Amino acid sequence: MSAHCQLTGRKPGFGNSISHSHRRTGRRFDPNIQRKRYWLASEGRHVRLTLSAKGIKTVDTIGVEAAVARIRARGEKV
């Protein structure tokens, strides 16, 4: 599963891990990505979305129909 949110576009960030001796090594900060299944009443089917925690809260606020419309407007397939 790729670590990006279909709704918010949130992707991994990159930085350094710093040890006790202050040596730096590369690391990756992944967003909290979840796979959620929603009922899309207009199409009479379920859709499975890859969302960050913030994306899930956004779907709860605006509704699944509006969220799917935003995802499709970005050119992603649902």
Task: Count all strands and give the number.
Answer: 4
Distance between the termini: 15 Å
Q: How does the major sheet shape up?
A: 2 strands, antiparallel
Query: How much of the polypeptide forms β-strand, as a percent range?
Result: 35-45%
Keywords: Ribonucleoprotein, Ribosomal protein
Family: Belongs to the bacterial ribosomal protein bL28 family.
Protein name: Large ribosomal subunit protein bL28
Organism: Streptomyces stramineus
Describe the structure in your own words.
With 78 residues, this protein is α+β, with helices and mostly antiparallel strands. The protein contains two helices and four strands, in the order E-E-E-E-H-H. It has a two-stranded antiparallel sheet with strand order 1-2. It has a two-stranded antiparallel sheet with strand order 3-4. Strand 3 and strand 4 form a beta hairpin. Helix 1 crosses helix 2. The two termini are 15 Å apart. 13% of the residues are buried.
Notable characteristics:
two-stranded antiparallel ribbon, single chain, two-stranded antiparallel sheet, 2 helices, 78 residues, alpha+beta, 4 strands, elongated
Brief summary:
Pfam families: Ribosomal_L28. It comes from Streptomyces stramineus. This protein is of the alpha+beta class and 78 residues long.
Write the layout of secondary structure elements.
Elements: E1 13-18, E2 24-29, E3 33-40, E4 45-52, H1 53-62, H2 64-73
Antiparallel strand pairs: 1-2, 3-4
Keywords: Ribonucleoprotein, Ribosomal protein
Family: Belongs to the bacterial ribosomal protein bL28 family.
InterPro entries: Bacterial_rp_bL28 (IPR050096), Ribosomal_bL28 (IPR026569), Ribosomal_bL28/bL31-like_sf (IPR034704), Ribosomal_bL28_bact-type (IPR001383), Ribosomal_bL28_sf (IPR037147)
